[in-house]
Prior knowledge:
It is a single chain. The chain is an alpha/beta fold. It folds into 2 domains: 1-88 and 144-194 and 282-339, FAD/NAD(P)-binding domain (3-Layer(bba) Sandwich); 92-141 and 198-279, D-Amino Acid Oxidase, Chain A, domain 2 (2-Layer Sandwich), CATH 3.30.9.10. It has 9 helices and 17 strands. It has helices at residues 14-25, 52-58, 66-74, 76-82, 98-110, 150-160, 248-261, 305-321, 329-332; strands at residues 6-10, 29-33, 49-50, 92-96, 116-119, 136-140, 144-145, 164-166, 176-179, 198-207, 216-219, 222-225, 231-234, 238-239, 271-279, 286-289, 295-299. Strands 4, 5, 6, 10, 11, 12, 13, 14 and 15 form a 9-stranded mixed β-sheet that branches. Strands 8-2-1-9-17-16 form a 6-stranded mixed β-sheet, covered by helices on one side. Helix 1 (14-25) links the parallel strand 1 (6-10) and strand 2 (29-33). Helix 1 runs parallel beside helix 6, helix 2 (52-58) runs antiparallel to helix 3 and helix 3 (66-74) crosses helix 8. The longest helix has 17 residues, at 305-321.
Amino acid sequence: MTKGLRVAVAGGGVFGLASALALARAGAQVSLHDPRPVGANASAVAAGMLAPVSEALTDPIASPHLDLMLAALELWPDFARAWNLILDRSGAVLLGDEARLAALSQSARDLGLGLSSLKADQLPDFPGGYGAAVAGGLQVQADQRIDAASLGTMAMAAAALGVRFSPGPPPSGLDWLVIATGPSRDFVAAAPELAALAPIKGHILRYGDLGHDGPVLRGSGAYAAPAAGGFLIGATMEAGVADPEVQAEVAAGLARTAATVFPGLAGRPWTAAAGVRAATPDGLPLVGPGRTPGVILAAGARRNGWLLAPLVGAMVCAYAKGNDPGVWADRLSATRFSA
């Protein structure tokens, strides 16, 4: 039974909050521990894309996991309703020259997907238009998005359920410790499985003086996503880099790349943010009990943390209750990289 269970969650990103919400709703006594305030983590430095199809087509490491990512997306409508989150269902458009679009179309067919093609003059309106190399796009209706500022809404919902927030370390002697941290090694003694995680740093830009209300536009090397306070341009992926500080030269490089896809951005002011995520060798998070009794892992989201959060939270709660965690347990097993 969950009622009476005492659980500490380490990490206030989207995995930690989703786990705390699921556990608290099931009746557990939950505390969430993070030295940083809500929103000061890698989950907040994101466009919040819930994009299994686009990810499978543009990220080779994600392609084998399309089935799992689609299943995770199916959980989002109920999750959003439960916690008063707003889903953007505008979809996405994959942009490119003729060669890129042909390759993406073939990849879609190989995955059994049928995507509509758009000519250059059929693309969504965007401030300043598109670069000369953008010959058109592929429309991905299934993809969705949520604003990363929803972390605050989730935290308020958790507090309303009685989750206690603390900047201090998790206490000992509870029934479960849920480790939902990034690439930090702070908990590796309790969870040696965390050694499988590697850091990936990402920069993202916000253009506060321009707006974009429509689908996510995913070009080669840069995407544009709607967001409150100015649209977002992302994102870099700097494997092995754990320094969370913004690097001016990297951010400027992203701005230059974005201007080749979206020429109207050239010379426009932007602000940059950076976050460090954790990744496993297969691109999927570690979810489930570790080898240390009383420890459940929910870490290593790479770049699909928002997409996978409802699934991960539900699995963490199932493990804590002693219930069946579902069909994805083996693929996400926290011990799959352990000797």
